[in-house]
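Quick one - first record:
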Amino acid sequence: MKKRAVKIIISFALFMIAIIVPFSNTYIKFLIYLISYLVVGLDILKKAIRNIFRGKVFDENFLMAVATVGAFGIGELSEAVAVMLFYQVGELFQSYAVDKSRKSISSLMNIRPDFANVERNGNIEKVNPEEVEIGEVIIVKPGEKIPLDGNVIERKIKFRY
């Protein structure tokens, strides 16, 4: 993700230079646009070509390649670079959101208790929550996490003075 962000920043800086600086030589301006485009879009072009040979022609990489190469072809250099930049920024945000979701799901998995206190034959046994049978009574002590879904059948509160 950091690599993608660095590429976006470098490409954006070159893009801004090409837009702002008045170059007397149009080849230099074209070269800056091309470098900016390749920094941010070369991976997309490679994926598009690779997917064409794999029979996956109409994916997002192919469509981005056609749109931006077409823009270069008709002389709209700034549009080609801008479209690829916006696409990569969108991909960066998507990657960030997916990573954040994965971390959230992973942290939710960590709150699951490792054991359940089950009342069996008048004794309380610590067992794996997966080993608790339907209909068994589980005891949840103060401060413990509730290991399974179920119905509260009795609530006992003991006070200590």
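second record:
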Amino acid sequence: MKILITGASGFVGSKVLDRLKLIYGTESIIALSSRSIEGVKTVDSHNYKFGRNYLEESGCGDVKVLIHIGAFIPKAAKDVDNMELTTENIENTQRLLQSRMEQLEKIIFISTIDVYARCQGTLDETMLTVPSTLYGWSKLYCEEMVKKYCIEKKCSYEILRLGHVYGEGEEKYKKAMPSMINNAVMGKDLNIYGDGKAVRTFVYIDDVAEAIVNAINLYESETINVVGNESVTIEELAKMIQSFADRQINIIHTPSDVSNVNYVFDNSKMRMHLIQSFTPLEAGLKREYDYMKEKLGQ
């Protein structure tokens, strides 16, 4: 079975690729990428500026499964409404779907929980999809394109909406967790904006990769949130990271007039279809801490 994966050099994609190679072997995998991916056949993506026959002519004509991870993902809050970059998500997915892949049987599309309307209750797949950002809208539009394509071509799809993913490699994103880990490794105080009572539910990168690869074997088309199993406040998260440090560091609160938004998930659908066990948050955090410590030479 041939598998085509996009975004294989990214934070999530690189982990998925490692798992694919382990389970399916390198000969079964093709990476569509702007850079060469070691160990597997790589087809130049040309930034998705290619014609309808390009993939078929590049040796992807017998691909059975497409795992579409590659996309613009905001690395900072200021980027969530970048009109040009979010529009590229739609255009690139459109070109991919318009390419000739006559033997395609399944598409696994990696989306985001940002497609949902903001709410304070427990979030599941039945919640209203009204994104608050252009990034969220771009991913929701892509979801609908994938569904329409699969209905027309009579193939199956899995829409996987990723939650708050953490782990080794996330330091490229300007998020609270990698920032606090970086400070703890460097012996700096941990800064929290507000009272630290906002709740988050994190999912470890290895669990995400396992869920995505396991989706290959789902028979029915599904939309599933790929989210964590433990909810903690930002204050509790900071205290966990603080406990890893080999020197005294403090937790500092910076006043903020932004109200707390909690993210708590019902992941029963994920546990039913994709994975049953999760990496404990403290164990995953320690792995990321040790990774950052080695990377920073501390």
